[in-house]
Amino acid sequence: MPYADFVHLRVHSAYSLSEGAIKIPQLIALCREHAMPAVAVTDTGNLFGALEFAMAAAREGVQPLIGCQLYVARPGSETGVGAATPEGVRKRLDQLVLLVQDEAGYRNLLMLVSKAYLETEPGARPHVAVEDVEAYSAGLIALTGGPEGAVGAMLADGQMEAAEAMLGRLEEAFPGRLYVELMRHGLSVEERIEGDLIDLAYARDLPLVATNDCYFVDEKMYEAHDALLCIAEGAHIADEKRRRLTPQHGFRSPAEMRKLFADLPEAVDNTLTIARRCAFMPERRPEILPAFPTEGERTEADQLRAEAEEGLRKRLEILEVSGDEVRPYWDRLEFELRVIIEMGFPGYFLIVADFIQWA
To answer: Looking at the domain assignment, is residue 17 inside a domain?
Structure first.
């Protein structure tokens, strides 16, 4: 079977917490069903599923594209939908989709995601500054973010000059690696800004790319996913001002995307171009756990054994177990300890025990 002539570059897996509803095995199965040679997972603000996704895709002969949908604070913004600061001022947050080209890009994406969580004000949505994106742009391909990206949102607000300036700034940060993103989910805002997006792209000789923002498998899942969004936001189905998607935010087939963008075949072709430009596969690395401080010259295994044996003695006294009835308990403890130590996890169990005792 020949490969499909379109790949999805914007998929939210179940790791887009309380937002995405596509499980990794489902995604890979869909790619196989539609002969899709590659697919990107761009979860919101995290890379939780990157390794699982990459391994699962590679096993089935699908090229995994590692990415993330980040929120970026708009420069100089003081009002709008976004993240409240400690002073109560709200920042305007815009979406930016980044795809990993190589090892350097992966490390830069890790840095951006980490900064979003470590440097965002408590209680606010994790985000980074434009300056952060500019500083860590090497090895990454950027998609402008559709109507919820900075350029699209500015166009929707009638701020043409600001949109041009932002597009220019992104072009400088991602030379030869910036794509103007077009979406057609049937939303009025997408129709309003599409002409301007195309004009800006052609004026700057920037490539277009067609994406479908996938949150669920198909239209049958739409109502269940809509309920998921309500749960996440504490809203009711009947609320008029809550966040809503459309039944078209599912996993559309390559044929559907070709038909949808029949007037702009280049935008569909560029999904394959981007896939070819990405050549990165995350490696499984040994688990790294912090060393747990032990008493005297004990190893972590010795410390775990000492604490476990002390705990068992106390419980046997409380339960008044004695004589021959004691042996099964000690045999079971020895079995459990042997498994934990052979797996290299005594430090992990000591750490968990430590914070449980602290709590």
So the answer is: no
The domain containing residue 354 runs over which residues? 300-358
The verdict on residue 294 lying in a domain is no
Residue 301 in tokens: 């295994």
pLDDT score at 15: 96
Whether 228 and 330 share a structural domain:
no
Q: Which amino acid is at 319?
A: L
202-213 in b/e form (b: 16+ CB < 10 A) is: eeeebbbbbbbb
d(CA 137, CA 140): 6
Q: Are residues 269 and 324 in the same domain?
A: no
Instruction: Tell me the per-residue pLDDT of 116-174, one tens digit each, with 9 for 90 and over.
Output: 999 998 889 999 999 999 999 999 999 999 999 999 999 999 999 999 999 999 999 99
Q: For the stretch 36-66, what's the b/e string if a residue is b when 16 or more beta carbons lie within 10 angstroms of its beta carbon?
A: bbbbbbbbbbbbebbeebbebbeeeebbbbb
Give the pLDDT score at 297: 86
* pLDDT at residue 83, rounded to an integer: 52
Polymer length in residues for the chain: 359
> Residue 31's domain is classified under what CATH number?
3.20.20.140
Q: Give 321-340 pLDDT, tens digit per residue.
A: 888 888 999 999 999 999 99
- Into how many domains does the chain fold? 2
Residue 284: inside a domain: no
Nearest CA to 63 among 42, 43, 36, 44?
Answer: 36
What is the rounded CA–CA span in Å between residue 9 and residue 251?
A: 11
* Judgement on whether residues 230 and 326 belong to the same structural domain of the protein: no
Give the type of residue at 347.
G
* Distance, CA of 21 to CA of 27 (rounded, Å): 10
